[in-house]
């Protein structure tokens, strides 16, 4: 390697090192992605809430669930009473999971769900409707609770709120526990904005247990737990009676990491990920420029010609000139019977009725059509001399059978 090449490589390595150091040292932008996992410390993660659960439920054992609702429900000890907490931007429960969750609540357990949607099967069963009011610009929403003990407290949300609320509930089984108040844009010219108050926190009885539903999962995130709204979370959780066991769902989360690659650790660390990508890019550039400079010209080699068609034409012309149709028909029959043995795995030593049935079944042909072909083959094999017409007719029938 000459001096110039060494200088280029050293310069490239220096640039890579500077880029890596810059990426590591520069401030990371705030990640506003909704996650709600117990390990995420981003604004809309649930790291703070998860670590505060033992103080909110001091008498309960906290069990983190990293599998589907169905798998937990079918494997749990049904003799133990418990609570189940779901918090995510959207909880998508299929019919099987909904059935198991309804059975779980019907037995006297409680389920707390905070999400902007709960899946159609659950909403339909509980006779509940939910919707969101989206504004063009982000506004402020205020949460409050209806209980007299909390009636004077208000909790403000200023970012990431979809103004989700319940539009209809089953009044015979449902109690409204809280409301959300927000400003709705009025798109009519010169008209003031409208202040709307809707229920966002309800309790629905089902069997011996209850569903406690909130349409504002943002209130349980790190961002609002650290901004003074932790009392709102404690007040809403107070509707869950202590049962000794609390399930925390960590499976149905927007931020759940699903990486099956052996490189999962490298790809989850920003510094290692950039190093990995830049290394691959550097190797590709090196191979591209180095190979372009030193690769010798590859001569063009013409591929061998396929002469099988010419050979078949020559052999066919020979038989046609000699007019030996008997030998030609015998060879055609031998090749065709070999084709049947290899493709359909049948015994062609005896072309009887059983062979016809098996061949028709495996070739997907009608029995009558197959029988005519086999009978014609038997007839040709029994003849001592053959004509040109026999050869043409045999070729037509074999071609039709293979189509």
Automatic annotation (TrEMBL):
Keywords: Membrane, Transmembrane, Transmembrane helix. Residues 39-232 form the DUF4350 domain. The keyword Membrane applies. It comes from the Bacteria. The chain crosses the membrane at residues 271-289. This is DUF4350 domain-containing protein.
